[in-house]
């Protein structure tokens, strides 16, 4: 019995020692296998599984990255190319910024099916991309391509990136945005395009961006924005267009962004003539936080803020055609309005400057339906302004299109040497000739009826 007990205890000890040895070997050899398989010059650590190879002067993506790595950091190296076989692992975060990447092969990221964040920023030699560069990244949420000197983007570059929410394209050399470039980015909320060389925004440049929250287009060279450019941006709350070359902005474009809350348009050469009226009318109704819009032309309005011009400043402008859904304007004025201005053109309307003070509220430049005390003193009419003809809509449109041909130019606008009196005398001669002809016609008809 004693011998059996000794043998049992001995075998139990052997089993425990064997199990312990096996466990130690598994912990030392098998479990840290991922760490021991870490690429040379890289550091690997678990929870989450991370491979960090930053700032090691690597010229290619290192081999041997564990397949289950959740984060792979390859920034600040000298990697030059990304090929379809460069990534033999599956990761959620991949940083490649600060390299020397010049070429990305189509389908280079197609194996990274669960990738959520890709940072390719600060690659100044990356000047062009192939259309299928981001093929297969249907779960990508954040894409960084800032400061890469990209001059153009292929029309199908962002195709099927349905999950993308953040797109960073600032500080490149983009000259234009192709139509429907972002049409598949239905979940995009942030689009950064500032610091490029964009000159115009076409009608379909932002089509499909139905969930966009902020759009940054400042520090470009934009001269023109199509009136339908923002028609899909109903959820936009932040729009930056400052430091461009905009002289005007269609009022229709701003009416399409009904949810706008922060708008910056400063640093543009605004023209505050008749072309500014649609934007001015939009500001009268909008309740937003806005920057100033300083006029550079015409000369009599230079230095004024477009938002705070008066209705009188647009009294001579073409009026909207009520039958046009497009909101086009005519080039005519009613007879009565033209006649009044030809005789009573007020000098004060072209010389009065809007003076801002500390009470000016930028966020609500105009109050809809209510009079704001802080603005009442700024809009008191002078005697000339109060003498403007008061026309109700029916009277106005009754005269619409009946131009007074006797008014060739306004008194203050006539060119030097223009003889207004000579034109008036010729008009009177024509009128007297018409009267004589009418008199002869009446006499002739009377004689015909009397004598058959």
UniProtKB/TrEMBL annotation:
Residues 1-37 form the signal peptide. The chain crosses the membrane at residues 429-451. Pfam families: LRR_8 (PF13855). Residues 37-71 form the LRRNT domain. It is a lipid-anchor. InterPro entries: Cys-rich_flank_reg_C, Leu-rich_rpt, Leu-rich_rpt_typical-subtyp, LRR_dom_sf, LRRNT, SLRP. Its main location: membrane. It is found in: Cell membrane; Cell projection; Membrane raft; Membrane. SMART domains: LRR_TYP, LRRCT, LRRNT. The keyword Signal applies. SUPFAM superfamilies: L domain-like. Keywords: Cell membrane, Cell projection, Glycoprotein, Leucine-rich repeat, Lipoprotein, Membrane, Receptor, Repeat, Signal, Transmembrane, Transmembrane helix. One of its GO terms (cellular component) is cell projection. Residues 268-318 form the LRRCT domain. Belongs to the Nogo receptor family. This is Reticulon 4 receptor-like 2b. It comes from Cynoglossus semilaevis (Tongue sole).
């Amino acid at each position: 019995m004693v011998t059996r007990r000794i043998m049992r205890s001995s075998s139990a000890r052997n089993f425990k020692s064997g199990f312990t040895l096996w466990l130690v070997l598994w912990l030392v050899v098998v479990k840290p296998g991922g760490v021991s398989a870490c690429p040379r010059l890289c550091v690997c650590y678990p929870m989450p599984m991370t491979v960090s190879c930053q700032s090691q002067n690597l010229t290619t993506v290192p081999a041997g990255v564990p397949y289950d790595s959740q984060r792979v950091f390859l920034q600040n190296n000298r990697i030059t190319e990304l090929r379809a076989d460069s990534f033999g692992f599956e990761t959620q975060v991949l940083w490649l910024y600060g390299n020397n990447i010049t070429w990305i092969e189509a389908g280079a990221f197609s194996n990274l099916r669960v990738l959520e964040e890709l940072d390719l920023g600060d690659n100044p030699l990356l000047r062009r991309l192939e259309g299928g560069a981001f093929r297969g990244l249907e779960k990508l949420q954040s894409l960084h391509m800032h400061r890469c000197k990209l001059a153009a983007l292929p029309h199908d570059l962002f195709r099927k990136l349905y999950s993308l929410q953040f797109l960073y394209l600032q500080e490149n050399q983009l000259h234009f945005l192709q139509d429907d470039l972002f049409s598949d980015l239905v979940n995009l909320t942030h689009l950064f395009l500032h610091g490029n060389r964009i000159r115009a925004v076409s009608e379909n440049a932002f089509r499909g961006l139905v969930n966009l929250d902020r759009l940054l287009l400042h520090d470009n060279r934009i001269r023109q924005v199509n009136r339908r450019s923002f028609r899909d941006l109903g959820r936009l709350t932040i729009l930056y267009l400052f430091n461009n070359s905009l002289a005007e902005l269609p009022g229709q474009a701003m009416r399409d962004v009904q949810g706008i809350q922060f708008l910056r348009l400063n640093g543009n050469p605004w023209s505050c003539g008749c072309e500014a009226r649609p934007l001015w009318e939009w500001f009268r109704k909008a309740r937003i936080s806005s920057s100033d819009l300083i006029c550079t032309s015409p000369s009599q309005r230079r230095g004024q803020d477009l938002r705070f011009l008066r209705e009188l400043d647009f009294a001579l402008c073409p009026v909207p055609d009520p039958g046009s859904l497009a909101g086009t304007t005519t080039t005519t004025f009613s007879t009565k309005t033209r006649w009044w201005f030809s005789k009573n053109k007020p000098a004060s309307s072209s010389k009065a400057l809007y003076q801002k003070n500390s009470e000016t509220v930028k966020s609500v430049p105009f109050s809809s339906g209510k009079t704001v005390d802080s603005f009442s003193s700024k809009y008191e009419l002078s005697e000339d302004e109060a003498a403007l003809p008061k026309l109700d809509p029916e009277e106005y449109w009754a005269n619409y299109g009946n131009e007074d041909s006797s008014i060739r130019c306004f008194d203050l606008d006539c060119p030097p040497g223009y003889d207004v009196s000579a034109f008036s005398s010729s008009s009177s001669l024509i009128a007297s000739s018409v009267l004589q002809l009418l008199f002869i016609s009446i006499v002739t008809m009377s004689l015909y009826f009397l004598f058959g």
